[in-house]
Amino acid sequence: MNDAITLAAPVEQVIDQVPQAQSKFIAEDWDPSRFDIQHWLGRAPWRTLKDTEYGIGKDPAPTHFAVIDDKLVNQIYKLDIATFLTAERVSYTGIAKLMQHAPDEASQIFLATQAVDEARHYEVFCQRLAQFGVSPEDRDQMMEDMTTKELRAFYDLIKEQVDRGDFAAAMMAHNIILEGMAYPIYRYESAYWSVFDPSLTQLIRGAFADEVHHVRYGEAIIQRYSKLGDDSRNTMQRLAREFHSLMTSVFESSIRHYIHLYQLVADQYMDVIGDIDIFPGKKMRDVSETDQVHILLTQIQDEHAQRMQRIGL
Question: What is the rounded distance in angstroms from the CA atom of residue 125 to the CA atom of residue 91?
């Protein structure tokens, strides 16, 4: 009878009687507790994405007429989203491949959630372009047009680490370099479009929230590798220097190719967007587009240096 009562007891009571609970996954020298699927459910589907459809909440604020009717604003809007898509495609395809090279099962589980995040970002930005009449074929052409030779070199170096199966180097490339770059860029872009299209700003902020979590995992796992006695630390330091040079080239190429278009938009609609806090303590009207790019690059480099210090590199 006592045995029957014990067997019928609530699971929580039984668990409380276990002398020492065990970890559910193998994780080598890092804490996976914030990076499992249960945590992901609470962070994304049940919180940031609650009551949204394709990343946009119910009854969104209206889009400014210029995004639809002004050919230049419409072009810049689409090119910006196309640029987001180039990075998101590199991310979801690379992270999906990287799962097979993960050092432990906890990392594989986390990467499964990251792959879903990156694929969702790609989907919602594709959906936004489709809502503005852009076909998949035209979207792909826009993405190709926005991939300068400098940006292609940057992406190719990321892909190279994944193709080599070097998990530490690939994580460095994806979750420290690429995702870390998204911090200042997404902050800037969410502010830039906040008046023109609040819905796009919501999409960007939703993606940004995910990228923050991805970088936290990157920092946690790279700290492990930076403490090893092998050549991992030296390899990642060399890789970081190479990426630093490529990042500078990417921003310099953007100034050469596109900054004049953004300046034209800013000049024409300064009465609409001039009061946006584009950077802390700086209004849009007080900073030229060229200076904005330089400030953005400085923020990326400064935050990258701080991140490298935190992970022991």
Answer: 14
How is 154-195 classified by DSSP, letter by letter? HHHHHHHHHHTT-HHHHHIIIIIIIHHHHHHHHHHHHHHTTT
Which tens digit of pLDDT belongs to each residue from 175-220? 999 998 888 899 999 999 999 999 999 999 999 999 999 999 999 9
The CA distance from 39 to 74, in Å, is 38
Give the integer Cα–Cα distance in Å for 200 and 31: 34
Q: How far is CA 190 from CA 100, 277, 279, in A?
A: 34, 11, 11
Phi, psi of 186 (to 5 degrees): -70, -35
> What's the chain's average pLDDT?
89
3-class secondary structure, 230? coil
| Cα 7 → chain centroid | 47
**Which residues pair with residue 277 across a beta bridge?**
283
Whole-angstrom distance, CA of residue 215 vs CA of residue 207: 12
Whole-structure pTM value: 0.90
- Burial code of 191-223, b = ≥16 C-beta within 10 A, e = fewer? bbbbbbbbbbbbbbbbbbbbbebbbebbbbbbe
Start-to-end CA span in the chain (Å):
62
Q: Hey, what amino acid is at 68?
A: I
Q: Which residue is it, tokens 């006592």?
A: 2
